[in-house]
Amino acid sequence: MKLREISWTLPIVPTERTAWLAAASAPVAVLIAAIAPGTWIVAPIAALALIALVLLDGALAGARRDWRIFVPSDTEVGQPTELAMQAVLPSRAISRVEGALEFDPRMGDRGVGRFLLKPVEFDEHVRGAHVAHPTRRGTTRVTRAWLRWTGPLGLGSRQVSGSLADEVRIWPDLSPVRSRELQTFLRDAQTGLIARRIRGEGTQFEALSEYEPGMDRRRIDWKASARHNHLYARENESERNNQIVFAFDCGQAMCEPVDGMPRIDRAVSAALTCAYVALKGGDKVALFGFSQRPQVMTPFVGDARAFHRLQSAAAGLDYTANEPNFTLALATLTAKLKRRSLIVLFSDFTDPTAAEMMVESIGRLVHKHLVLFVTIADSELETFIADEPGDIATLARSVTAETLAHQRSIVLQRLRRMGVDVIEAPWESIGYRLIDRYFIIKNSEAIG
């Protein structure tokens, strides 16, 4: 990372130790002046001596010979991101080296990181790092850096600062896609990049086989069994080329944090994980985002090698503080879909009144498409309900939380009665629950 400008705040500055020494010397000076007024000259002499020690210590600290900042150009939301600093200093005369960075608050830690720099073994450099945890997607900046090193006495230090130029792009979290469990599953699964026939599932007839105990009775071909006087079962080829749309509500409720990260980012991570699995299975995937109006609508992607297009589109989903317009958004989505598709809708709501328009719009969508509604379980409500009512305030909060949870369950039950499949789970497991439900739907031949 290049430093656009480097400026010295002060050639030599006193340290915290110097301030404590000065504070501790003040009562002593007052005591000496009270006991022996004629010795008042000792106090200014001591102060001048302390100033001289500060200047001497700062001079012994020496000047820096090199200073570099290392910031990654790309990272993922919620993932540890190392912002490193390295310098070359006269280490023999230095007791402490400190660094600080100023960055966009979306990188976490309120936009400031402070750390110590330690000597690098078998090298003349000192190095330190601040580990940031980005809390929101987008393009951010690391705007300024400070370096301070202290002399051997710990009384005087030198400090330099510089402004930075490069940007950091924060992408959706793809750690579940890279996880060993998912990669092992995809390697061992039947579905893959090679288009081969898979018997036993789907709607396209492939072959007949003798019926065996344990098989689904619905697979029995009664006409063929009557001709051969023996039970035969149909084996079908697995369906491919299904259309799957991951739709994201980017409204106010989805921008509320859950365990330190907005719900929309938790949803995007789960959706991209399932999308990767669907692409590996030969299906087509598109992303759709909306708030008061549609934000993003990607073309259908049918190749896992084009997965980066979905990732880039998901990174463009904006955070909004407005209530979503489900009527406009889902009507727009319906108009763009030319065939029956699986629509996975990620949304949330706080009360039945806010959910009424959502339920009505989803009801119109169910007539033409298969809808899977996904919402993140509200762990905060569960915590409030479980709190022991030790006082009136806690009791009132617990009763209110239980009422909201009951109203939430009523809305989800209404969706189920309309024929909508519903997933409500903690954010840690919602991605895997979504993958399991996708395979159940795909194997049940319900999409096409």
What can you see in these coordinates?
It is a single chain. This protein is α+β, with helices and mostly antiparallel strands and 448 residues long. The protein has 3 domains: 1-171, Immunoglobulins (Immunoglobulin-like, Sandwich); 175-193 and 240-443, 3-Layer(aba) Sandwich (Rossmann fold); 205-237, no CATH class. It has helices at residues 16-35, 42-61, 175-178, 180-188, 222-228, 263-280, 307-315, 326-336, 352-366, 379-386, 392-417, 430-443; strands spanning 3-8, 13-14, 66-70, 74-76, 81-88, 96-103, 112-116, 118-119, 125-132, 138-150, 156-164, 167-171, 199-210, 232-237, 243-249, 257-258, 261-262, 284-290, 294-297, 342-346, 370-376, 421-425. The strands form 5 sheets. Strands 1, 2, 4, 6, 7, 10, 11 and 12 form an 8-stranded mixed β-sheet that branches. β8 and β9 (125-132) form a beta hairpin. α6 runs antiparallel to α7, α8 runs parallel beside α9 (352-366) and α9 (352-366) runs parallel beside α11. It is elongated, with a radius of gyration of 32 Å. Mean pLDDT is 83; it is low at 190-203.
